[in-house]
Amino acid sequence: MIEIGQFYQFILAITIGLCSGILYEGNCLCRFFCKNRIVILIADIVFFLLFAISYILFASLYFLPNFRLYIAVGCLLGFLIYYKSIHKILAILAKQCYSKYKSYFSRRKLCKQKKQKER
Q1: Contact yes or no for 77/17 (Cβ under 8 A)
Q2: Would the CA dihedral through 59, 63, 66, 71 be positive or negative?
Q3: Cβ density class 49-58: b for 16+ within 10 Å, e for less
Q4: pLDDT (tens digit per residue) in 41-94
Q5: DSSP alpha helices (H): ranges in 34-86?
Q6: 58: closest CA among 106, 2, 8?
Q7: Average pLDDT value over all residues in the chain
Q8: Side-chain half-sphere CA neighbours of 111 within 13 A
């Protein structure tokens, strides 16, 4: 039988999963700027450790003595919701910003080269 407390805990677990998606964005930034495989591996390990710590803190905050599958599923579900929705939107926005940034600086570079040729 599902109790109200279990439903509330499941919703909170989904929220923790969504918040862990914000940590994942930091991991994605590290992947974007650092192409070294060792740095990427360390960033992945740190992300999963922080995700596990948030799960353990959640379980200890609500005095859950044993492993609760619905809490783990809620955390993963929240992360998947973040990854499939908000992460995609942020990726599109970042790509647009990057293309504007790149076109702006390429125009500036062309202008500098043109001015140098005129001299």
Answers
A1: yes
A2: negative
A3: eebeebbeeb
A4: 998 899 889 888 888 888 788 777 677 888 889 989 999 999 898 888 888 888
A5: 37-61, 69-81
A6: 8
A7: 81
A8: 6
